[in-house]
């Protein structure tokens, strides 16, 4: 059911067999294993994690960002392809880019929650669900790149745990300044060894005007017009040989708010990848500004 794909890093893995139940494509993940970090979550509060200690540079710990999801497209011979990232925003709701999923049949999409390493098969903490429907933003067009968002309604509601939790949606009126902790979270390429683990980048938000200037000056597109629904970041850390150059569309920009450093809010969804790692400059990352779409997402969640 529907209302109404640049791939930067292709990963093909063997995944659980898909079965169709009541119009939904679900994954048979039943086995005798118990979740490594899947203990029942002590709080129903959004944006909380159970593993806040930072790991090595750029690498996350398991469960550090439990709302990060991997979206796969059904392939051949049970080999499914990772096509983008997404973010769990409700018990049965994922937010991603329209560009990723608009031309893929709903029955061919699966969402992997609790995923950390996309280069391996099924992980102990992993939950795999099919889609009941996808909702493309009604004003999205491929050419304009505006309103590049899609909501995925899962076949089943998720049981929250230390491995899987929803993120809070950012308040439409909230301004995220230097006293906020912001991260880009998603899968990509770390260095020549190409890790497939979930990555984090400390990031600072910049103004729309500054972002467009950088994209025009360093992105080689002098007439580039940044859509007004975008929000941009530059990396907080110094760019070096270990800087993750490649990143999935659909990756999340999450920030804490004020003095509350233990709760994250979804501010953006990665829509463009303008980063050019052959230059020693801070080319911005571009996201759809979730603050401009909170009412639309909330309406779908409440239906």
Sequence-ordered SSE layout with sheet pairings:
Elements: E1 2-3, E2 11-14, E3 18-21, E4 24-27, E5 68-73, E6 79-90, E7 93-96, H1 98-101, E8 109-113, E9 127-136, E10 150-154, E11 168-169, E12 182-186, E13 188-189, E14 199-206, H2 208-218, E15 230-235, E16 246-247, E17 252-257, E18 260-272, E19 285-289, H3 294-302
Main location: secreted
Keywords: Disulfide bond, Glycoprotein, Immunity, Innate immunity, Secreted, Signal
GO molecular function, one term: serine-type endopeptidase activity
Describe the structure.
By secondary structure, the protein is mainly beta. It has 2 domains: 149 residues, Beta Barrel (Thrombin, subunit H), CATH 2.40.10.10; 124 residues, Thrombin, subunit H (Beta Barrel). Helices cover 8% and strands 35% of the residues. The chain is built from 3 helices and 19 strands. The strands form 4 sheets. A 6-stranded antiparallel beta barrel has the order 5-6-7-10-9-8. A hairpin with a 2-residue loop joins strand 3 and strand 4. It is globular, with a radius of gyration of 18 Å. The N terminus is likely disordered.
């Amino acid at each position: 059911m529907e209302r109404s794909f640049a791939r930067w890093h292709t990963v093909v893995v063997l995944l659980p067999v898909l079965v169709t139940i009541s119009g939904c494509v679900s994954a048979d993940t039943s086995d005798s294993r118990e979740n490594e970090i899947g203990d029942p979550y002590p709080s129903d509060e959004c944006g909380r994690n159970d593993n806040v200690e930072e790991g090595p540079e750029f690498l996350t710990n398991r469960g550090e960002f439990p709302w990060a999801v991997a979206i796969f497209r059904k392939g051949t011979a049970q080999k499914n392809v990772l096509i983008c990232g997404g973010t769990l925003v409700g018990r049965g709701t994922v937010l991603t880019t329209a560009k990723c999923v608009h031309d893929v049949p709903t029955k061919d999409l699966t969402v992997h929650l609790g995923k950390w390493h996309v280069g391996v098969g099924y992980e102990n903490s992993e939950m795999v669900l099919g889609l009941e429907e996808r909702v493309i933003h009604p004003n999205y067009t491929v050419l304009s790149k505006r309103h590049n968002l899609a909501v995925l309604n899962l076949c089943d509601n998720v049981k929250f745990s230390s491995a899987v939790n929803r993120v809070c949606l950012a308040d439409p009126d909230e301004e995220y300044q230097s006293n906020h902790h912001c991260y880009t979270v998603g899968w990509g390429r770390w260095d020549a060894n190409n890790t497939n683990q979930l990555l984090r980048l400390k990031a600072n938000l910049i103004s729309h005007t500054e972002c467009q200037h950088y994209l025009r000056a360093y992105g080689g597109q002098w007439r580039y017009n940044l859509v007004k629904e975008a929000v941009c970041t530059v990396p907080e850390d110094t760019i070096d040989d270990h800087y993750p150059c490649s990143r999935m569309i659909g990756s999340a920009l999450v920030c804490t708010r004020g003095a509350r450093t233990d709760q994250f809010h979804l501010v953006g969804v990665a829509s463009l990848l303008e980063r050019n790692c052959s230059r020693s400059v801070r080319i911005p990352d571009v996201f759809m500004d979730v603050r401009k779409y909170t009412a639309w997402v909330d309406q779908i969640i409440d239906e």
